[in-house]
């Protein structure tokens, strides 16, 4: 996440990722941009219903004012703290979609009769007061593992009644988008190649290029002990470009035996009931850069190498851009987390995506993947003018994730020009030079390179360093790998209030001294 330093004291802005040269999550230009890379926008007539029932719904502008006030007072926002009227108003302007998390736990491999009865009770509450004739007309989506449902609700009375149910963990207006009218600019997407300064890379004997900041973290020296061989890293982002052979047919050219797998869980549709996914190919550029930072291969083509260049990459196109503000983006990311959680060849998950506040279904999915032993890295946030006041974003705020942000290349610690910091941060990565050049990575198209910045590249780079450690010690648990990363970082055994344990020394992490 990245804030402009000039605007850091402002209370209005956008929040998210680095908008510098394919900035990390610079998609956050208005806290929930309707990104330029997504078509998943609710139709105007669905978002602008004037009122329902006996009481008039607040306008989107009035809803945003209340959200702003809560953030200014508390430092964050949570729908659980909103009034019935505010929550219902957001439902009205979000296509009447309500997500309800129920039961005592986030997930269940098998739905018990008790859980089923709770779900039926919820549907009965809705149908008794709405125009729907049955639960089938009310139910939009039911997850097979996570304990939540998406329903259609239009009545304030129903919302108020549901919030009294002690079996409900959360209720969220899934279709509502904050500041949607001002969110038409950047979204972290970039497919253009860039000229990389000769001063920003070194070269291996193979001819592959090493990003300048790998030397700061001693990643190049760590390769003498580990290159990430055999470790699977799941990357949940916007997918991987079909035009980049080094993340495709040439992925294992230099070292045979490694593999990249590409999947898609994102549905590019305005309709919540749509099920056809949009495929695995990146249409944004951000996901390609994130996967490249993790493990672009050693090569003799003069292209940039990734941190764990012998690791395996399992890419999921779960979203159209980096800001999780669309129904199908949130659903796609949750489904990707479930899928990666179930893969035995994946140890690490990298997520350079997020949102200013908690999203129930993704929170449930993170807990599911975490319960299956996955080490989950999440971006602390990169922003532009809209979020320069916001701290660490979700899901990096969760205890189950490891939050990462970017810092400048200098003697002391200073966050990158648009990166978020705060007490939730666990690690930092040097990714911005004094001339504002960021970490160079393999580009979207064959023969291209790009600069990739913010907490996005910091997150992917840290996931790669974790893969180096786990490959060196394949029998270790997640806790042991994390402890070694901590021990190798600048501030250990203390934790800095803004930068966590600080920059990781990759050589020390894999060698132990």
Description:
With 513 residues, the chain is α/β, with parallel strands linked by helices. 27% of the residues lie in helices and 15% in strands. The protein contains 14 helices and 17 strands. It has helices at residues 44-47, 60-74, 84-92, 113-129, 135-138, 156-162, 212-216, 219-222, 286-295, 327-341, 360-371, 454-472, 478-488, 506-511, and strands spanning 51-52, 55-56, 97-102, 139-142, 148-152, 168-172, 201-203, 209-211, 232-237, 260-264, 312-317, 348-351, 375-379, 401-408, 427-432, 439-442, 449-452. A seven-stranded parallel sheet has the order 10-11-9-12-13-14-15, sandwiched between helices. The longest helix has 19 residues, at 454-472. The two termini are 32 Å apart. The model is unreliable at 1-53 and 180-186 (pLDDT under 50).
Summarize the structure.
Helices cover about 25% and strands about 15% of the residues. The chain has about 525 residues and is of the alpha/beta class.
Largest sheet: 7 strands, parallel
Question: Helix content range of the residues, please?
Answer: 25-40%
Give the strand line-up of the largest sheet.
Answer: 10-11-9-12-13-14-15
Radius of gyration: 22 Å
**Proportion of residues in extended strands:** 15-25%
**End-to-end span in angstroms?**
32 Å
Query: What structural class results from the helix and strand content?
Result: alpha/beta
Number of helices: 14
Mean pLDDT: 88
Number of strands: 17
Low-confidence stretches: 1-53, 180-186
Instruction: Tell me the overall shape.
Output: elongated
